[in-house]
Amino acid sequence: MKVREGYGFTLTELKQAGIKRREARGLGIKVDYRRRNLSEEGLKANVDRLNDYKARIIVFPRRTRRSVLLKKEGKEDDTGKDKRFTRSDAPVKQVDPNTYTRSAVPLPAPAHEPPRAITAEDRSVNAYQALRTAWQWEKDANKRIQAAKKTDE
What we know:
Elements: H1 11-17, H2 21-26, H3 40-56, H4 65-73, H5 120-124, H6 127-139, H7 141-152
Helix pairs in contact: 1-3
C-alpha cells in the first residue's frame, strides 16, 4: 500500500472511528466526501490513525448551562473541583515527529524494500508484454465463459 497524504478521511473511516462528520471538522480532522476506500487494509490503517488521534486530543467543552448558573450564583460544583478539564487515564502513544504532516493525524512510516542486484531473470522479463497479456486476458474473460457454456450444452 502506497502511503501518501490525501485531502481528508472518508465518511466510512470516520464512522468506524466513532466520529460524526460535523464533529470531525471541529476536532481539526479534514473530511473528503468524494473519496472511497478501495482496500480494507487502507481503511483499517486510517481508522487506527483516527483512534490514536482521538486518544491524544484534549477537547475543552463549551460552557454548559449548569456551569453558567453556578458561576452566576457564586457556588462551586458538588465535588468542589471542576471536572471539565480532567483527562482520562488512557496511555498516550508517543508519535515520531518525523512522520507528522500538515494534518494533525500522522502518516505511518513507509516500509521500504532494501535495494538488490538485478538478476538475469529480472532482465529477461518483459513487464510491458506481461501487463498487456494480463489486460487482454481479463478483457476476453466473458468470451471464454460464453464459449465454455456452448461446449457444455
